[in-house]
Structure formats: structure tokens, C-alpha cells
Amino acid sequence: MPHGFQRLLLIVTTTVTLVACGGGGGGGSSDGSDDSFSVSGRVTIPEFVYVDADTSDTGGTDISPENNSSSVAQRVPNPSIIGGYVSSSSGIYSTGYPYFVDTTDVYLTTLIAGQEVMISAYDADTGLTSITASLYRQADPDIAVDTGVIADNSSVTLTAPDSGNFYIEVINSAGPSTYILNVAGDADIATLAASEDSAEFVPGEAIIQYVPGISATSVADVPLPGYFIERMNDEGTHGLFRFSFTESSGTRQSAGLSSSELREKTLEMIKSLKSRPDILLAEPNYIRKSLEVTPVDPDYHLQWNYPQIGLPAAWEDSNGIGVVIAVIDTGVLLDHPDLSNQLLRNGMSVVGYDFVSSSSSSSDGDGIDSDPSDPGGGSFHGTHVAGIVAAESNSIGGIGVAYKSRIMPIRVLGSNGSGSDADLIQGIRYAAQLSNSSGTLPSKKADVINMSLGGPGYSSSLGQAVIDAIDAGVIVVAAAGNDKTNIPYYPAAYNGVISVSATDLNNQKAHYSNFGSTIDVAAPGGDEFSQIYSTTGDNYNGTVLNSYGFKIGTSMATPHIAGVMALMKQIKNENFESFNSADANSLLQSGDITVDLGEVGRDDIYGYGLISAPKAIQAAGAITFPTISASDSSIVFTNSGTETLILTIPDGVVLDGFNFESEGTASWLTVAESGPMDGTAYNVVVDETGLDLGGSYSGEIVFNYTSTKDPGTGPIVENKTLTIPITLVLVDPSNSPDAGRHYILLTDEDSVVTIQGTPAKDYYQATAVANNGKYTFTITNVPAGKYILNAGSDNDNDGTICDKGEACGFYPFTSQPEVIEITGNRSGLTFATGYSGAVSTSSTAVQVPLEGFPHH
């Protein structure tokens, strides 16, 4: 099938040199006259993206085998994501392009015990996928330690039984197929780039409200094209409405509407309702999603995120005891050993509720009910978030930010990780001890609401629910989103809500994190190389097992803030002082509870800065032990190198010494005091000698010291430690990132919307190969006009770019393509490509087809 432009699964950074060529059928002047222009820029991909050494995109010649056996295996690092091609036959596609035989690909990489690799395969336009993937130890390449079969465009996961070097073999017994090999990955690779940033909503439904003064009786006298399925106020004039056009024999199919037609019809009906004089409000029932990005590489220090915001020091004075945090999410595994004692209870009963009203996505077979547990149909997102908030300190697994607080689990997201505004509104109202569709109230109101979810699309009804919760004294915290866009995500963007962006291991903006004028504060959300460890579940043979795992995203950053709010709330409670949303926002804006990052003062990346737990509890009134801080909360090296670590040692602290250790077959980490020799400066040196390229290794430096504080009753001395995680990632310098030959297309705007596999009337093209992991391009002879700019690879050589399993990207963002108006030469256009999978994209800026974009 033609390459369909798909939503980017992984935003990558690659620079390519492009050679301009004319449009397919459209052309344009080629004589350099004044009515044509040039368009130039750069395409990027990340360091860990690679391409199969022998794809079918050969320029028309047979494939030259490069990695067809273990003796010539292609070395790839850990982590890495590779786009590949395999076929047991040769022939001609329906597009007229040839494909070639390449039955087997073999890769060599270093894995740690229990680490997974995932292979996802996609057939071309000649038939079904039939691929066998196997894992072999390098020391014993004849016996597979794990094998899986991929059929009908699916995936398989292979697991390393121990640590060492392994071959990964991909064999195809059918026609041409592309595949993505994700070394160390999680099945949900699509969320690595950015979540869907078009505003999704429930087709056939709307949230409507009558103008004030309309009674329930008069409402009944005014015909509406449907009926209320849920009321949101006592008067019955505000609620969730279902349109009657969805009700032909009770199914959408029998109504004769496709999903896109149903969506359009819903918007038409909402527009019609808005024009009625008796309707105050009519809006879509927007879908909000969990805002996680699935982790890739798990071999880092498990709690690097806690010292990054100073939690160990803050825990000396506050642990969140007596504070209730509502986790509004997918539900929580109520019997998890790190969470069961942390749940708010009324007697023996857990205080919480399940507001997922759709039985088709509830996974528990019914609508709303009093059981807020996660039924296990999804990613255990809420369980992971709850663990970051308040996992118990019990020598099992990890620990939560506010590990003595209590969790109120509220389920509003179904098995697919999404939910509607109507359900979310009820969950918020329940947490705030306000009337709601359950007909019940919690025995205790939540002090803090954590919402690691969101999406674009402003809803007045959802905004009112947030206002009501804030007015009830609840501090509301929400995730800013993972689309690396400045488009506001709700509920985070509502006034009064603390909107949280994400940072990585190095206190830099996480690549996926949203930004913009609504960001209030930053917290650790991690990235592919430094994930957040917490509680989770595992679906094993139909049984849900309690476990632990890694995730990344603003979803993970948000509970750090909710937890710190709980630490502050405890201090305020002990001092008999109030602490509400206005207080929290005021302290954020003053800079009293953050460490400034980025531009001085507030900026659109980090808001008012990175949350600081010690500063937060001091601002709340705690008398704390002075602590040592370091210039880096952790250090990541790529191959051998040296870094200087600077300590800040306040009054009341005496440094007693330090030690360091590292994992691996060789001692690669050394630390020595340097500079003024007063205990404040250290050289950290790593040496890769004796270690395997393609692997990653962990170590740490531990500083021991004593700290003294005086609360007014005499000095108190305590022994303390500061731990700095060290990570060494070994990358082969000769193996630079490469996502394959790229075709950069500038397609006429009017032509774009009619492509769908048909050659565009007007497009202009350049081709490029990776140069030191980068692509640069220049397209010449472009007439004035409006265009869409995109790029991608053609690994299966079917003549179109952006198939599943191939690199694809749009300017400026794949999640938000924009029309470029050419009235003169344009330069400096930079955008990213990445490997596409089974996730489609759409844009509020311009509608672009999901498939098409032929090249030549």
C-alpha cells in the first residue's frame, strides 16, 4: 500500500543533504527565473535511531546483502530503534516500483537480564506478514533463547534471560514487509514522540446547558434532537446529551455513518444548538487521555528523580501524613503491596469511585460503580501515578513523594487510556465532596487533586468543575501534555490549576513536554534514557500481577508536584494554617518554592522553575536540616569523559568523606577532589576500556556528612548522605544515527487533500542521505504558492513515503502540520522525522491525508 503519513512514533534528529528535483507532474520553472524560489532547511532524528543496512530502497538495483547472518551482523547500541525491510520474494508493486529479496536481517546488541526487545512488522501491498524473530546469545548463536512469530501486522517481544551480547534475527517467509526493531522497548512505542494533539471527543454526544432561569418543566416543552443521559446539576438544565441520530437500531453502523461522518454530524448539531436562544452552552464531550510517554531503557538509578528535587532533605520534616490526594486516572490496583495501606478508607472500604460510564471501555462490564480499581485492560497508568504520589515506605519497591499521605482513587479513564469530559467532571466533583452522578460523597474531601491526563479543546463545563473544586479548597494539579507544542491542554491550562511540564535527568526540558504561557512549574518526567520508577501491574495469562516498572511523561512529572503540595499541606496543618490553591500559586509565582531554570524568572518552558521540595517545606514553615547540594543531580556520559562536580556546603554541615562504585566487567569510574581542595570540587572521570560498545552502565558517588539544626530547643545533629547517580552509555562513534534515505517533499496545499495514494499534481522533491546523523536539504525551482512540507523514507521501495515502519515527519511538527506560503526564498526550516507505526494523525491547523505522498 502507499506510504501513509502517520503520526510520528519517535521524534528523531537527523541532518541530510538533499538534491533538488522537480515536481511530479506539477513542475515549475527550471530556468531560475524570478517566479521560482528555493526552500532549504534541516531534518533531524535522535542519536538512537538507525536503519537496516540492506533495505529495498536501492535506487533500482538488487539488494547487496549486508546483515544476513551472525557473521556479518549489524551492531546496534542499547537503546536503539531500527527501521528495516525483509522479503522472501521479489516482484513489482502496484505502483510500478520493484521490490527485492532480503529474507534475513541479523543485529548484534548488548542487553541486560530481563530486558525486552520488540519487533513490529507491517506488510507492503502484496500480502500478509509472516516473520519469525529470534534472540540468540553471541556465545551460542545456534540455540534461540526466545522466539516469536509476527503475523498480520502485529508485534512480538523477546526477553534476554541474562546480561550479555545477543543476536536478534528477523526472518520473513512471505512478501515484502517493513518492521521496527525497538531494543529495550515497551509495546507502546508510539507515545515516545507526542500524543494526539487534535481535540478528540465522543461522537454523538455533547455537554449542553440551558440559559439561567429555564426550569426543568420548560425544558421538557422545548424539543431537542436527542436526550440527556447524565445530569450535572440539581435543576436538570446542565448535562451530557446524546443526539438521536446515533440511535437507529441502537448502533452507529445501522445509522449508516462512518466515524468521520459521525464526528462531522456531531459538530454540526452542536453548532445548531449554539444558535438556539435557550441554550447557554453546547460543546463536545472531549476525550482526555493519560499523558505518559512509554519508557525505553530501564537501566538507570531507580530514584534519580527524587534527589533532583531535594526530596531526601524534605522528608526529614514532612511526609504528607494526614493529607488526602485524589488520583483521577485509570484506577489503582487496590491490593498492590506498596499501595494497599496508602488508600483512604472509611472503615474497611476504600474511599473512591469509578466514573467510567461507557461499558464498552470500562473493562469491568458495567458503568459507574463504587470500585475504583484498575481492571487491567490498559497500561496501569493510574497505579504508576499513585505510586509516585504515595507509595509506602516499607522496604518493598520504591517510595512515594508524600509516602504518608492517603490516596483517593478515582477512575475516569477506560481501558484505552482515555475518557470523556462528562466522566472527568463527575470525578472532580466527587473528589471535592460536591454533588455528582454517583449520588454519594467521600467521607473526606481531597486536599489535592492529581490529573495526569488532558487534551486540547476548551470546555466551559470542565472548567467550571475545576473552579468549583478550587472554590471548595482543593489544590488542583494537572499535566501540561506530551505534544511538545504550545497549544493549551486542559484541564492543565485552566486558571488556578497548577500546570506541570517535564524535565529530564539533566534538568533540561524533556523533549516531548508541552510549553507555553500556561506552564506554572516543572518536575522530573524523564526521557528514554532516564525513566520514572513506580508501581504498576502486569497482565500475565489473564491474571493481573502487582509489579514495578518505568514510564516517562508529564503524567509522571505531575504527581511530583501533587506530592510536594501534600508535604506543604502537612506543615500548614501542623501550624494550624490554611493552604489552598491561591496560596500554592502565590508561592510558585514568588519563586520561593522553585529553582529557576531557563530564562531568569518565569518562562514558557519551566514556568516559575523546577520544584524544590526543601524550599517548599521551608516556605510552608518547616525548620529544616541544612543539606549539601550539587551542581548536577546526576551525570550521564557518552563514552569516556571527564566532568567537574561542584558541591555547595551550607553552614551547619560538615563533610565526612565520599565513596563511589560502578557496575560492569571493568572499573570505569574514578572520582578525585580538585580545585580549591576544600571539599567543594571533584573531577568525575569515566573510562570505557574493557567495556562493550552498545551497552550502558550505572554507578554512583555517595557523599557522607553531618547536619545540624536548632528548632529552638537545642541543636540536633543527624548523619546524612548525598547520592549522585552516574550513567555511562557506550556508543560506537562509527555508527552515527541514520533513518535511511529521505525524500523531502513540498506539496501544493490543494493537491495534498486529494492525494490518498494518487500522484500529486504539484510537488517538488529533494533526496538526502544521513551525514553524521543529520540531513540538510535544498529544494529549488519552487513557484510561489502554499505548500505542505514533509519528509520520509521508503524502506520497502514502493514509491511512496511514510508507510508504517518507515521514517516520516511534517513541518513544523508531525502532530501539527502547517501550510507554508512561498513568496520568496525560504531557509532554516527545521523539523523532525521518526519511525511511523499504527498511530494516525490529524491537525487543527490543516487537514492532511493519512496516506499518500508519492515520490520519484
Structural class: mainly beta
CATH superfamily of the largest domain: Peptidase S8/S53 domain
Number of strands: 50
N-C termini distance: 16 Å
CATH topology of the largest domain: Rossmann fold
CATH class of the largest domain: Alpha Beta
Strand composition percent: 35-45%
Largest beta-sheet details: 9 strands, mixed
The CATH architecture of the largest domain can be named as 3-Layer(aba) Sandwich
Overall pLDDT metric = 80
Task: Catalogue the unreliable spans.
Answer: 1-33, 185-198, 247-255, 292-301, 753-760, 837-851
Spatial extent as radius of gyration: 28 Å
> How many structural domains are formed by the residues?
5
Net shape: globular
Number of helices: 12
Fraction of residues in H or I helices: 10-25%
